[in-house]
Design brief:
712 residues, alpha/beta, OB fold (Dihydrolipoamide Acetyltransferase, E2P), Rossmann fold, 7-stranded parallel sheet, 6-stranded parallel sheet, 37% helix, globular, disordered N terminus
Amino acid sequence: MTSKRLDSVSHPPGTNESEGFLATPLQFLKGVGPRRAADFERVGLITIEDLLYRFPLRYEDRSRLQPIGTLKPGRPASVSGRILSCGVRFTRRRGFQIFEAVIDDGSGPLRVVWLNQPYLSDVFMRGQRVVLYGSVEMYGSAVQLTNPQYEILDEEEGETVHTGRIVPVYEKTGAVTPRVQRNIVFDALERLPPSLPEPLPDDIPARLQLPSRYAALLATHFPPQGTSIDALNQFGTTAQRRLIFEEAFLFQTGIVARRRFAASEPKASPIRVDDRIRESARRVLPFRLTGGQKQALKDIVEDLQRPHPMNRLLQGDVGAGKTIVALVAALVAMENGQQVAFMAPTEILAEQHFLNISRLLQGSRFRVALLTGSTTSTARREQLAEIEAGTIHLVVGTHALVQGDVRFQALGLVVIDEQHRFGVLQRATLRAKGLHPDVLVMTATPIPRTLALTVYGDLDVSAIRDLPPGRFPVKTFVKPESRRDEVYAFVRGELEAGRQAYVIYPLVEESAKLDLKAATGMADHLAAEVFPAYHVGLLHGRLKPDGKDRVMKAFAAGELNLLVSTTVVEVGMDVPNASVMIVEHAERFGLSQLHQLRGRVGRDRHQSYCFLLYQSPLADEARERLRAMTETTDGFEIAEYDLRLRGPGDFFGTRQAGLPTFRMVDLVRDRELLEIARREAVRWFDRSPAASAQVGELLQSWENRFKLIEVG
């Protein structure tokens, strides 16, 4: 295939080629074979379609390679030249070597170095033509490239694929280099049938002015001359946006299908709300609900009264009062003769929920039980019999609730706290214990709207954005380590007033590699030298479960004044008397994690404080994170900022969170296209008789494609 064909095709000229081409296994493609196919399979590329729907990392305009003589420091550049000399240079540092080369393109020589990569002596040799891409730096009075990406040009091959044009640069896959992958993709595009099947409904490409699938694939991998290199590297060209939209539309179609499928499932028995139930709810409320709580409760109760199961996500910042809303919903279900399961991620949090719920329901006729891994075998047998008989109405527990021997007589409502901490299979197992029960999932990790539309797109979302009456926003201060003594003096004043405090460290034990204070050593130091008059406890992830529980219970009971901990307290500690949080090495923590840690205080009517201690010098990104923490206590604002800063993968930090496996969609970059795709998916379902008939088939292919099991 010549570059002319790749540059010029914009419309599919025919429809007579085989539609099965995209499903061809990669190993049958020219230049692949079994070994390279195995490398591709390790990153999820199995068919030709998988390969062509994997975007390049970036693009280089090698039709305009920069002359070496014009390079300026501080800017990335692509250069091409011939190697004049190369070899390994040893340094005074033991085991540290530098591979050094000098290349020339006719406008002058350029020094190129790769740090501690001596194996490159087997890659490069004098006389080769190479293309290099990297950041230009000053070395003495001359410029140089340090650790650039590279390709060796084959003199016998034409320059239509690797140079003389805008070139796609792919991520290395096993032993498959970017150059080899470019050849493979080029060959696949040469054989690509112009009559590709169109996965989008017929009217969408024309209405949204999107190119055909065929033209979009060609122009995405080998863009025509004149395409903006900036637009390409921002994934903003018409061809790239067409492929991004295609994936977004297929995803949103599955989300809409799931919502409509769920809406077709009848509940075992509908919920009714009358004056008697309203009065019962009023009796258990310890205070007037905030506006946010009232609206969330209204949403939930309306869902409960519908003939189809509720699937609702209740978002609320730490301390926003989600639990009392969930309890009123539970009361409505129990007044209608249904049982409720309330699942929490840790034993300590389950026990706190159990104590609070038991206290609030003390004057009612409903019985509450606690079921965790610590429940004795005798007590467990008795409780299981009563749950199955229906004489226990509300069960609070951990993952012990999903075990096979737990059977409910009439499970009507499932409440899941900190739901992203549970695996999807655990949630599905609990839900299966009732006949299509209502499901309310809660999270104190505010989810940005873009993620709510994707990860939780099949759930209705309610948010509580205000704090309960009498609560004060936590005052946050950023301090250098040199001001530690005044922070300790402040903490001492809070302890003298009867309050409690947390001190958080990033490590359990000292590390020779990292200059970070560790929880174990600092707990001894604080107890012996800084706060000798007070009881200091130590909590970290390496403690056995019963050891953790003992420490957490002692702190919750007020037996410990100060708790030294790692981030295991991030979720699952509710100690209203704690009023101070110190985070050591705060520059090492993510923004959402800092916000979650800060949420451990400010849970009562006392003014609370958070001190973020940092070690100089601060990187720009760390300084931005700490500044954001002082400017707002609104978790939703922080979540949006954190999503922009870190991206969606790190936002949740775990596959269990249910992030879909997108090939091309970026949840931050493509939020606008996701919104458009959602609107178009709803429109298609509403207007296409075929759509409703295809729901089952759509869901099957959707789950296979996005590797996402039902949330909730």
